[in-house]
Amino acid sequence: MQTAETHYKRVYGLTTKQIAERIMQREDNIYRMEVIRDILDRYSEECMKALIDGEKLNLSGIGTLTPKIHAPITMNIFDDEDEKRIPYVTVNYRRNTKLKDRMNSRYRKNIADGFAGLSEKCVCTAQQRNVLIEKGVMKGEIIDAEENQ
Known about the structure:
Layout: H1 16-25, H2 33-52, E1 57-59, E2 63-70, E3 88-95, H3 97-112, E4 117-119, E5 122-123, H4 126-134
Antiparallel strand pairs: 1-2, 2-3, 4-5
Helix pairs in contact: 1-2
């Protein structure tokens, strides 16, 4: 049996270990790596406990995470195997206004400089870039979106 070849690499985002390494490299840091990781792990645990308990979580300077309960209407028909009818919880995220303004400011500056994205880790798709060019927000040539996939 043949399978399609994929070049997919899962990206997990910034980890506790990576954050600890960044803090360790700061000039104002006075703590050992183990202490930093321990504090970050404990902070993460407390955040998780708060969300599990249904509390709103305000991450200073970043935003707010709010658990939201979903109890779908079943019309008195309930099938255990029907995932759409099983109650579940989601977490809504709302950015801090200062963070939102700083991110938008950097993005607009990068667009003015000819780069469509926040950084190399967060770049517009070819389709988004083409829209920016069509609207006259960004200079450049429109690329065929199918070629870049």
